[in-house]
Write a structure and sequence with these properties.
The complex is a heterodimer of chains A (about 120) and B (about 110). Chain A has about 120 residues and is an all-beta fold. Chain A contains no helices and 10 strands. In chain A, the strands form 2 sheets. In chain A, strands 2, 4, 5, 8, 9 and 10 form a 6-stranded mixed sheet that branches. The model of chain A has no long low-confidence stretch (mean pLDDT about 90). Chain B has about 110 residues and is an all-beta fold. Chain B contains no helices and 11 strands. Chain B has strands at about 5, 10-15, 20-25, 30-40, 45-50, 55-60, 60-65, 70-75, 85-90, 100, 105-110. In chain B, strands 2, 4, 5, 9, 10 and 11 form a 6-stranded mixed sheet that branches. A 5-stranded antiparallel sheet of chain B has the order 1-3-8-7-6, with no helix packed on it. In chain B, a hairpin with a 7-residue loop joins strand 9 (about 85-90) and strand 10 (about 100). Chain B is globular and about 40 Å long. The N and C termini of chain B lie far apart (about 40 Å). In chain B, about 35% of the residues are buried. Classes of the chains: A mainly beta (about 120), B mainly beta (about 110). The interface of A and B includes residues 33, 48, 103 and 104 of A.
């Protein structure tokens, strides 16, 4: 596709359930990022994949959060045993390797609501 | 802990005025600095980037960087109602790491 694709666009779940959020980056972009944005807040960095390098997981808020990127393309963010404070918009972005202009191309986000 | 600080606003300016948005960052080793615009309910989009001390102009937008003061700003000249959005400052602390974003400043331009 032409842009970063995320699914689902909306997810409502019950506290304690697991959720998976998917990101399909722009073809050819080797860097992939997950951020989350709570209501009225900025973007909180979660995890960063760059090519075949080990991911930078320093932003993951707890061990309930994990992410993987298969084949250097599609990424899945998994949240186990969801809590109400996990409610947010989860944004995925991709960029070219060099990131010389800092241009991250964002998807439309997955809005997660934990009841 | 690398931090990027912005005044949340809202910053209200009349149409045609200059809007000034400010950002400070904690990591003195930061290399690159970016301004993203985010319309309500939409995803952020890049509007400016700057690497060197001084000013960088692009149309109605001017980014200013002062590494000694760890300060970056964005000026919007001849502000238009369509400029009403949240402006996010982002910093790249060092090579190979992700952008760190501030919480954003909400700008409202009244006609």
């Amino acid at each position: 596709g032409a842009g970063v694709s995320q699914s689902p666009s909306n997810k409502v779940t019950e506290k304690g359930k697991d959720v998976e959020l998917r990101c399909d980056p722009i073809s050819g972009h080797t860097a992939l990022y997950w951020y989350r944005q709570s209501l009225g807040q900025g973007l909180e960095f979660l995890i960063y994949f760059q090519g075949n390098s080990a991911p930078d997981k320093s932003g993951l808020p707890s061990d309930r959060f994990s992410a993987e990127r298969t084949g250097g393309s599609v990424s899945t963010l998994t949240i186990q045993r969801t809590q109400q404070e996990d409610s947010a918009v989860y944004l995925c972005a991709s960029s070219l390797v060099r990131l010389s202009t800092g241009e991250l191309f964002f998807g439309e986000g997955s809005r997660l609501t934990v009841l | 802990q690398k931090e990027v600080e912005q005044n949340s606003g809202p910053l209200s300016v009349p149409e045609g005025a200059i809007a000034s948005l400010n950002c400070t960052y904690s990591d003195r080793g930061s290399q690159s600095f970016f301004w993203y615009r985010q319309y309500s309910g939409k995803s952020p989009e890049l509007i400016m980037f700057i690497y060197s001390n001084g000013d960088k102009e692009d149309g109605r937008f001017t980014a200013q960087l002062n590494k000694a003061s760890q300060y970056v700003s964005l000026l919007i000249r001849d502000s238009q109602p369509s400029d009403s959005a949240t402006y996010l400052c982002a910093v790249k602390p060092q090579a190979g790491t992700a952008l760190i974003f501030g919480k954003g400043t909400t700008l409202s331009v009244s006609s």
